[in-house]
Amino acid sequence: MDLRFTPEELAFREEVRAFIRDNLPADTRERMKLGHPPRKEDTVRWQRILNAKGWAALSWPKEWGGPGWTAIQRMIFLEENLMAPAPELLSFNITMLGPVLLQFGTDEQKQRFLPRAANLDDWWCQGFSEPGAGSDLASLKTAAKLDGDHYVVNGSKIWTSTAHNADWCFLLVRTDPNARKRQEGISFLLVDMKTPGITVRPIISIDASHHLNEVFFDDVRVPVSMRVHAENKGWDVAKFLLGNERTGIARLGKSQERVRAAVDMAREVNFNGAPLIQDQTFRQRVAQLQVDMKALEITQYRVVSAYDKAKGAGKPDPLSSVLKVKGTELLQATTELAVDVAGPMATPIWAQELAAMNEPDEMLEASSAGTASYLMLRAASIYGGTNEIQKNILTKAVLGL
Amino acid sequence: MDFEPSEDQRLLVESVTRMLGDTYGFAQRKSYMGQAEGYAPAIWSQFAELGLLGLPFAEEYGGFGGGAQEVMLVMQAFGRALVLEPFLSTVVLAGTAVNRAGSAQQKQAILPAIAEGRLKMAFAHGERQARYDLNDVVTTAKRDGSGWVLDGSKTVVSHGEAADKLIVSARTGGDRHDEDGITLFLVDAQAPGVARRGYLSRDDTRAADIALSNVSVPDADVLGEVGHGLPIVRRVVEAGIAATAGETVGAMEAMNEMTLEYSKTRVQFGQPIGSYQVVQHRLADMFMTQEQGRSMAMLATMSVDNPDDAARTHDIALAKVGIGQAGRYVSQSAVQMHGGIGMTEEYAVGHYFRRCMVIERLFGDPAYYLAKLAAEVR
Ligand SMILES: Cc1cc2nc3c(=O)[nH]c(=O)nc-3n(C[C@H](O)[C@H](O)[C@H](O)COP(=O)(O)OP(=O)(O)OC[C@H]3O[C@@H](n4cnc5c(N)ncnc54)[C@H](O)[C@@H]3O)c2cc1C
C-alpha cells in the first residue's frame, strides 16, 4: 500500500496541466472561469484539440485512438481537465458509446463510428428514459418492428440531454413485447437524428437553460445494421453502459473547482464587517468539504485501480455506486457553497444582459452562473440512476440484502 | 398560549384563498409573469378591493387594522400560490417603515394610497459592499439648502422597477459601518437622478439596481429622525423576515402536497413510488420539517412587535435560521422526489424551489443569523 502518487504519475499530472494551460482556447477558459457551462462550440473545439493530441478516447485501446493510459492516469486527466476548468469530453461519445461499440459492436460499426466519436465529428445523445420509464428503465415502451432490413421505430423519449445538438442517438427500444421478462425484449440501436420522423422538443430546466429534450419517433426507419449486439440483448448493453456512466459521474474535479471559486469569492465579499474568508464557520464548512473530497478522491482511485487490475472482466464495480452517490452529494454541496458565498448577488439573472450592455461585472456574472450551476446540479442526484436507486443497488449487490 | 386563528382571521384566509384559487393557477401565473410589470396589475387591484393592501394599517389610514398575524396568514396563502405582486415590498417593508417612522402627514399621504392600490413602493437599502450588514451604508445624503442631495447605489431592490416611490437609506453622518448617521428618505422613483435597471430574479419576480446621482429630496421627505434610520431599517427587515417566514410555510405546504400526491400516482417497478420506504421516510422528514418551520414562522410573527429589542432580535434570528433551513430541505427534497419532472420550468415544484432559495437569502441567510446567535452564547 502506498497512497502517494508515483513520480511518473506526478510528472504526468504536470504534463496534463501544462498542456491544458497552453492549449485551452482563451475565450473558453474565460467563460468557464466565470462558472458558465461550455457552449457546444467550446466542447467540440476542445475535444478536437485533445483528440489531435491522442487524449480524447480516454479508456479506448490505442488502436482506436486511446492514449494507452492506466485508469489512474485517466482519473488524473479528468480531474485536471475539470479543475482548469475546461469543457469535459462528451461523455455520450467517450464513456458511453465508445466502450459499448468496443465491447459489442461489429467491425463495421467500430470503423464507421469510433473515429468520428473521438473527434466529435458526430455528437451523440442517449435515448434511454421515457415518460413512464425512468428509474424503471426496463419498462420502456418505444417499439421497433422489423420490416425487411429495417426497424420501424415508434414512441418517445424524454430527458434526452443535448438531443438538439446531436447528430446521432443510441436508443433503447422494445423489439419483443412478448418476452418472458421485460429485460429480454430490448434492443440497442444507433439512430441518425436526421432520419425522417424524428422530432425534438426542448424542455427548459429550472436553471433557465435548454439542455433537456423530448424526442418523438414516428415511423422512423433504422437499418438493421445499426443494431448493436443481438436482437433482444440490448439490456446487457445498457447495463454495461450504465456501469461505465456511473464511474465518470463523480466529477470530483468540478467540486474542487467550485470550492476554489467559492473561496476566491469569499475573499471579496463581506461578512459581519470583515471578508467572509475570515469567518471561522465558513472556514470550517470549506474544511469539511475538503475532508469529504479527499475521501472521495481516494475511494475513486481505489475503485479505478481495482478496475485496472481486473482488466477485461467487463463488469462494472458495484462500488461505482459509491462514487456516484458521494460524488453527486459533493457536487451539490460545493455548488451550494458557491451560492451561499454570493449571497444577494446569487439571485439576479441579468449578468448576461449587463455584459451585452458592455458593462461587464465579473462578480455578478460569476454569481449568476454559480446559481445556474447549483440549480442544474440538483439533477445530479437524479440522472445516471437516482441516488435512491444507487443505494438500492448497493444494498443488493454489495450488502446482499 | 393559543395557536388557533380567530374567526376573523379564518374568514380572511378563506377569502384570500378563494380569490387566489380563482385567479392564480400555475398557468394563469405564467401569463402574469409575461406582463410588462412582471406581475398582474389587475390582481393588485383585486388585492386592494379585498382590503389586503391596507391589512396592517390603522383604520384611520384606510387600513384593515390587522397585525403581524394577519400578514403571516396572507403571506402563507401567497406562498402557496407563488404570488408575484409587490405586496412584500409595498405593504410589509415600506408600510412598516412609514407606519413606524412616518409623521402624521406622511402616513396620511402614503398609507391610504397604498391601501387603495394607487401607490407601489420599494425598500432601497441594500448595497453591494454590505452583503447582509444592515449598518453598512455608503450612499450619501448631503445638506443642500433646506433639503438633501443623494448619491450612491442600491442593489437587488425587490420590485424597485415597478415602484412609484422608494424608501432610500443614506448616510447623513458617520463612516461606512457606523450605526448612527443613517437616514431614510422618501424618494419619488421618477425624480431626476434616479436611474433604475430592472431584471428578472431567480424567483420569477423582478428586482432592480438603482443608481442615485444628485437626487434632490426636500426636508419634508425625510422619514423619521435624521441620523437615526438604522433602528427603523431593523424593524422593517424583521417584519420582512416574519412575512417571508409565513410565505415559506405556504410554499412548503404546496410542495409537500404536490410531492405526496405525486408519490401516490407515479408508478415505477409496478408500484407507486410512495410505496418505497425510502420515499416514505423522506416524505415524513419533509412533513416534520414543514411543521418545525411553521413553528418558527409563528415565533417570528409573535416576536415582531415585541418592544424588548434584545429578545425580539434573538427570536427573529432563531426563526430566520429555522425557516431558511426548512425551506431549503423541503424544496431540495421535493425536486428529488419528483425526479426529472421536478427539474423543469414547466412544472411548479422548481418555481417553489427557487422562491425558497431567494427568500433564504433575503435580509440575510441562515449562516449570517447563526453567527449572530453564536455570538450571544454565554
Ligand atoms: C438533467 C437530466 C439529464 C438527463 N439526461 C438523460 C439523457 O441524456 N438520456 C436519458 O435517457 N435520460 C436522461 N435523464 C433521465 C434520468 O435518467 C431519469 O430522470 C432518472 O432515471 C429518474 O427517472 P425519473 O425522472 O422518471 O424519476 P422516477 O423514476 O419517477 O423517480 C422519482 C423518485 O422516486 C424515487 N424512486 C423510484 N423508484 C424507486 C425505488 N424503487 N426505491 C426508492 N426510490 C425510488 C427516485 O429516486 C426519485 O426520487 C436525465 C435526467 C435529468 C434530470
Write up this protein.
The complex is a heterodimer of chains A (401) and B (378). By secondary structure, chain A is of the alpha+beta class. Chain A folds into three domains: 7-89, no CATH class; 124-232, Beta Barrel (Butyryl-CoA Dehydrogenase, subunit A, domain 2); 249-397, Butyryl-CoA Dehydrogenase, subunit A, domain 3, CATH 1.20.140.10. Chain A is 49% helix and 15% strand. Chain A is built from 13 helices and ten strands. Chain A has helices at 7-23, 26-33, 40-53, 71-83, 91-104, 107-118, 234-248, 252-268, 280-309, 320-342, 351-356, 362-376, 387-398, and strands at residues 124-127, 143-147, 150-158, 168-174, 186-192, 198-204, 210-223, 227-228, 270-271, 274-275. In chain A, the strands form three sheets. A four-stranded mixed sheet of chain A has the order 1-4-5-8. Chain A has a four-stranded antiparallel sheet with strand order 2-3-7-6, with no helix packed on it. A two-stranded antiparallel sheet of chain A has the order 9-10. In chain A, a hairpin with a 2-residue loop joins strand 2 and strand 3 (150-158). In chain A, helix 5 crosses helix 7 (234-248), helix 8 (252-268) runs antiparallel to helix 9 and helix 8 (252-268) runs parallel beside helix 10 (320-342). The longest helix of chain A is centred in the last third of the chain and has 30 residues, at 280-309. Chain A is globular, with a radius of gyration of 22 Å. The mean pLDDT of chain A is 93. In chain B, the strands form three sheets. Chain B has a four-stranded mixed sheet with strand order 1-4-5-8. In chain B, strands 2-3-7-6 form a four-stranded antiparallel sheet, with no helix packed on it. Chain B is built from eleven helices and ten strands. Chain B is globular. Chain B has three domains: 7-120, Acyl-CoA dehydrogenase/oxidase, N-terminal domain (Butyryl-Coa Dehydrogenase, subunit A, domain 1), CATH 1.10.540.10; 122-228, Butyryl-CoA Dehydrogenase, subunit A, domain 2 (Beta Barrel), CATH 2.40.110.10; 231-375, Butyryl-CoA Dehydrogenase, subunit A, domain 3 (Up-down Bundle), CATH 1.20.140. Chain B has helices at residues 7-23, 26-33, 41-50, 68-81, 87-101, 104-115, 230-265, 277-303, 309-338, 348-360, 366-376; strands at residues 121-124, 140-144, 147-158, 165-171, 182-188, 194-200, 206-218, 222-223, 267-268, 271-272. The two termini of chain B are 28 Å apart. In chain B, helix 1 (7-23) runs parallel beside helix 4 (68-81), helix 7 (230-265) runs antiparallel to helix 10 and helix 9 packs antiparallel against helix 10. In chain B, 51% of the residues lie in helices and 16% in strands. Chain B is α+β, with helices and mostly antiparallel strands. Classes of the chains: A alpha+beta (401), B alpha+beta (378). At the A-B interface, strand 9 and helix 13 of A face strand 6, strand 9, helix 9, helix 10 and helix 11 of B. Flavin-adenine dinucleotide (FAD) sits between chains A (126-129, 134-135, 159-161, 212, 379, 382-383, 386, 388-389, 392) and B (266, 268-269, 273, 276, 278-279, 336-337, 339-340, 343).
